[in-house]
Amino acid sequence: MEFSTIPYDRSIDRKAFDCGLHPALNAYIAQQATQDEKRNVSRTFMLVEDGQLLGYNTLANASVVEMTESGRLVLDSTTSTRGALNDDAI
Q1: Distance (Å, whole) CA 23 – CA 12
Q2: φ, ψ for residue 29 (rounded to 5)?
Q3: Read out DSSP for 3-41?
Q4: CA 28 to CA 36: how far, in whole Å?
Q5: Is the dihedral of CA 72, 87, 7, 9 positive or negative?
Q6: In order of start, what are the domains of the chain with their CATH numbers?
Q7: pLDDT in tens, 22-63
Q8: CA-to-CA distance for 62 and 42, rounded, in angstroms?
Q9: In the chain, what are the helix, strand and coil shares in percent, each to the nearest 5?
Q10: 45 C-beta neighbours (distance < 10 Å), count
């Protein structure tokens, strides 16, 4: 099993994702990320293994000050890091 970090891919199943922390984080990737990508409001990167979404990180543009704001890395609650979340994965 190999982890990969890929740019947002709407073909990855996002509905089953559950970080176990906050429903809004689950709802964002399932319902809002596609719209934000289309509008160029943010860029989301997905941590996947065998086509399954294990986590995501979103970078959002702060248009007023024209800077990039780093979002938080959100992991699925069933994900065990197993030492695999190193700098390359994040």
Answers
A1: 19
A2: -70, -30
A3: EEEEE--TTS--TT---SS-HHHHHIIIIIHHHHHHTTS
A4: 10
A5: negative
A6: 3-75 (3.40.630.30)
A7: 899 999 999 999 999 999 988 999 999 999 999 999 888 765
A8: 9
A9: 20, 35, 45
A10: 18
Q: Which residue has the tokens 């780093």?
A: 70
Closest CA to 44 of 9, 77, 75, 13: 9
Tokens of 77: 């609650």
Whole-prediction pTM: 0.72
Give the strand order in the sheet containing 42-49. 3-7, 42-49, 52-62, 67-75
Q: Which DSSP letter does residue 86 get?
A: S
